[in-house]
Amino acid sequence: MSDPLGDDALVEAAERWWSTDIIDIHPGYIGVRGFPIEQLIGRLSFPQMIWLMLRGEVPTAEQGALLEAALVASVDHGPQAPSISISRMSVTCGLPLNGAMASAINVLDDVHGGAGQQCMELYAEIDQALVKAGYGEGATLDHDQTVRLATEVWAGWKERGIRYAPGFGHRFHPLDPRAPRLLGLVDDQAAAGAVSGRFAAIGRAVEDSISAGRSRRVPMNIDGATAVIYSELGFEPALGRGIFILSRSVGILAHAWEQTQQGGRIKGPMPPQIPYNYTGIKHRDLEPNA
């Protein structure tokens, strides 16, 4: 067994245990990515601060505006969204706001809340196929070729058992009203040279590909549109989900607070007057000698 560390070595080992490039704190000083916090307060928007924390640099005004648009678009989708309904039910069970928010956020996983990240992964795979086909960064994409490659990539996803293209179609909206607006903002920034527009083209190619041969188009939804924005801005897919959770947390908080003001006690997903559907064995009696 090695000799125990001396006091100085022990302190040094403790300091090395956690390391971070994000924040530097000393008595009277707080530095975020090297910037004194007092220089950031009042000058950076919250979306720009998110960017700085995640990426290490201050975004341009155009980048911050696109990130903000995606965050605004995803804040809420009503009590029928499981995460929102969970936040409301939680407070009727006595949880404080932080408990209600934690309960709701915990369900934002692959099925509910994961489509944006999955769509970014789909876009990234198509992007790599385009690079291999000779359409590298900065190249003008041929739409037909992009559709063809999107079709090939999506076929590979379907072979892995994935039935629905993440980021496309919607169980409630025939056309998600958020998606065209977000894509329009990307188009504007692409025309101004703030982003490439490459992933907007890829997203549209996916829509054309999965809609081919159908009587109705399968339009891009909010997850597909925000996946375009986060991909255009250079975020990794896993961060796409994390940023979505930051956005949806606003709706979760608002609904939990509203339910707190409305009151109610132990509210389930449906009023007690509406029965659930029992599909088990009908009434039977236990034999006396059982």
Automatic annotation (TrEMBL):
Gene3D superfamilies reported for this sequence: Citrate Synthase, domain 1, Cytochrome P450-Terp, domain 2
Stored InterPro entries: Citrate_synth-like_lrg_a-sub, Citrate_synth-like_sm_a-sub, Citrate_synthase, Citrate_synthase_sf
Keywords: Acyltransferase, Transferase
Pfam families the record matches: Citrate_synt
One of the record's GO molecular function terms: citrate synthase activity
Keyword Disulfide bond among record annotations: no
Cellular compartments per GO CC: cytosol
Residues forming coiled coils: none
Biological-process GO terms, alphabetical: carbohydrate metabolic process; tricarboxylic acid cycle
Taxonomic superkingdom: Bacteria
Major enzyme class: transferase
Signal peptide: none
Pathway(s) where this gene product acts: Carbohydrate metabolism; tricarboxylic acid cycle
EC number: 2.3.3.16
Family note: Belongs to the citrate synthase family.
Name of the protein: citrate synthase (unknown stereospecificity)
Organism, scientific name: Microlunatus phosphovorus (strain ATCC 700054 / DSM 10555 / JCM 9379 / NBRC 101784 / NCIMB 13414 / VKM Ac-1990 / NM-1)
